[in-house]
Amino acid sequence: MLKLAIVEDELFMREFLEGCIDYKELGLEICGSFCCAEDALENLRHNKVDLVVTDIVMPGMNGIEFMSELLRFNKDTHFIVISNYQDFELVRKAFRIGICDYIPKTEFETEHYRKVISTFVEQEFSKQQLQRDENIQKEKNLKEIFWGEIQVAEEKNISENFLECKLLFALIDILNLERIVKDEWNMDKDFLKNSISNYLDQAFSEFKHIEYFFNEPDKIIMLFSVSDIVAIKQILYKTKTVLEQKFGLRIYVYLDNTYTLLRNLRSRYKEIYNLRKYRFFCSESEIITFKIAERFQDSFDYKKEFSDIENCFQKKEFNTIIKKLDAMKDVYPENDVIETVLFFYRHIYLLVTDYAKSSDIVLDEGLSFGEIMECYNYEVAIELLKKYVRTISGSLLFPDKRLAEQLDEYVQQHYAEELTLEMIAKNFQYEYGYFSRMFRKLKGVTFKKYLNSVRLEKAMQLIKTSSLKYSEIATAVGYRNYEHFSRLFCEQYGCSPSKIERMRTDE
What we know:
10 strands; alpha/beta; five-stranded mixed sheet; five-stranded parallel sheet; single chain
C-alpha cells in the first residue's frame, strides 16, 4: 500500500479530494491531510509518503516552495498539482520539479483524476518490483562472491568501480531472531527481513556506495566505500537502537577498522566474526571494533569460559555447566573492571535464558537477575543460573513417558496426604510454573482433577472391599470434609456411595 498526503488550504476542496475516489482500491492510503504547506512539511519531512496532491497558491509557503523543500528530505516523493492558478512561470517551475501531472481546478473531473492516480500507482508498483528484483539479484551475486561460487570477473550486476574500491566491513548480528519470529511476533522471516531491509535503505540513503546482504537469516553484512568512519558508526548505532526498539531484537554490531577488497571479503569476515567473543566485555549499546577487543587481550580468560559454556549447551552437557558455574565462585576477578565482570555474568544469563526460550522452557525468576547484579552479588547470581540450568536439564533430558510414570507412582503413594502440585514440583526439582504446564500436557487435565480422580477410584475400591464407614473412607483417601467427598463422588460416578453399597449388597 502506497502512502498519500493531501495539501489544500480550501476546506471544501480538501474534503472533496479526501473522498472523491476509493484510494484503497487503487493501492493508496491517506496518511495526512493538511490545510497549509508549513504543517505538511513539518510532518512529511519525518514521515515519508509516496505521493502528495497539492495546491500551488496557499497562504504562507506556496506549493512550489513546499515541493522543493520536501524533496530535500524525501527525494523519492512524487507530486500531483491541482490548482486554479494559471501563471505560466509557476506551472513551468512545477514541471521542472518533476510533478506527475497538473490539473486545473476549473477542468477537474473525478474520472480523469482517478485515471491519473491509477497510472501513478501502476508505474510506482512496477518500479518497486523492478527494484526488488534488482536487489534480490545483487544480494544473490554478493553472496555467491562471498562463498566463492562465482568469480568477481563474472559479476554483471555490481559496478566495476565498486568491485575495485576499498571497502569497510560491518557485521550486524541478531541474537534472538528465531524467538522473535516464532514466539513474540508470529511473523515469517521474509516479512521481518523485508522490514529490516526497508529501514536500512532509509537509514543509509545518503551513502551512495553501500551494499548489504543477509549472509545468514540473522547476520547482515554491510559494505561501505566511504571514508567517514565516525558517520558510519553513528548511523550503525542509530540503526541498532531503532531495530531493537521496533522489533524487540537484540543486536550486536561489529565494525572493521581496515579497508578490504570485495574479493577478500570471506577471509575478512572470519576475522570480524571472531570479534563476537568480546561482546560480553562491551555495553550492549557499543559498536564493537578491533580497537576495543585489544583492551581485553590480557585479561582473565572470560571468552574461553563463555565459549566452553556455550559449547556445553550445544552438547547438552548440563552437569558440566553446573560444575563450571560452581568453579566461578572461586574466580573473583578483583583486578578487573567491575563492568566487565557484570557483562560477563549477564551474557551467561542471556545465553541460558535464550536457550530455554528456544527450547520452549519457561524459567520462573523470583528475584530478577538484574536486581541481583545491581548488588554485585555474584554468589546469588551463580545459584540462580544453576537453578535455571537444572530446570533446562530436567526438561530436555527427562523423557515425558518416564516423567508420567514417576508422577503416577508418587501420587499413588501420597494421594491420602495434603498434596499440591507445588509440593510435587519441589520434590521433582522443577520450577513450579513450568511443571504446571508440563503436567497439563502429560495428563490433559489440571492437577486438582487428576488428584480427585485418583482419590475417588481408591474410595470406590474401599466401598467394594471394606466395611469402613463412608466418612472413614473419605478420610482414608484424603478428604477432610465428607459432604465435599460425597458431591465429588456423585459427579464422577453418577450416584452416591450408599447406592454403590446397596448395588453391591444386592449382587
